[in-house]
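dumping this here so i dont lose it
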């Protein structure tokens, strides 16, 4: 998808992530709701993480640690912000947090954790730092997905589409994790990241 957004000589992924932040801003300005503002902040933090992870204009050279870890940290913060936004809506609507949607998400996340751990212990060049980062990230995104799935199960209107967005976001991160942890990567998987990720973000923003 990012190849469609190579405007003005800028990388398509850069243009696309900026457009997603602008989309989040428009949603907030139109609806003027607290949760829309929180999701806008989450998208802005994600955009900063994107710019760092793509090493735009060699920004990574200015950082004291590898830029992948810094970018991942920004995405951890973004997931926490999204979790707060949807948790606020659950509390505002007095929805039950632990429901079938919650358990579906927990099951998917647990199975992913088992797969990631298996790949780590069977890999030819295990990286303990990367494994720990992946597991911490998995816990954060699993909490985010559980919250969004819980909200989507209860809300029963168009906003339930946020669950599809959370799952799409999860899949894009899984592809990155497979690459960094187990060296499982192809051109197709790299291309898929920039399909699943923006679609996931857009659906999350609409659902928020």
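and the seq i came up w/
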């Amino acid at each position: 998808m990012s190849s469609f957004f190579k405007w003005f000589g800028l990388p398509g992924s850069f243009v696309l992530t900026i457009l997603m932040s602008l989309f989040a801003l428009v949603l907030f300005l139109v609806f003027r709701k607290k949760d829309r503002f929180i999701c806008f902040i989450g998208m802005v933090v994600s955009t900063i993480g994107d710019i760092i992870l793509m090493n735009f204009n060699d920004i990574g050279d200015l950082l004291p640690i590898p830029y992948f870890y810094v970018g991942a940290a920004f995405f951890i913060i973004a997931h926490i912000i999204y979790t707060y936004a949807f948790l606020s809506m659950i509390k505002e609507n007095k929805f039950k947090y632990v429901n079938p949607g919650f358990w579906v998400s927990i099951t998917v996340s647990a199975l992913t954790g088992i797969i990631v751990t298996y790949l780590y212990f069977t890999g030819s060049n295990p990286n303990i730092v990367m494994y720990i980062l992946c597991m911490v990230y998995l816990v954060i995104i699993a909490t985010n997905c559980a919250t969004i799935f819980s909200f989507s199960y209860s809300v029963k209107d168009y906003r339930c589409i946020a669950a599809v967005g959370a799952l799409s976001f999860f899949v894009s991160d899984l592809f990155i994790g497979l690459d960094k942890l187990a060296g499982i990567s192809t051109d197709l998987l790299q291309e898929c990241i920039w399909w699943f990720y923006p679609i996931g973000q857009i659906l999350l923003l609409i659902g928020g």
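The mean pLDDT is 90.
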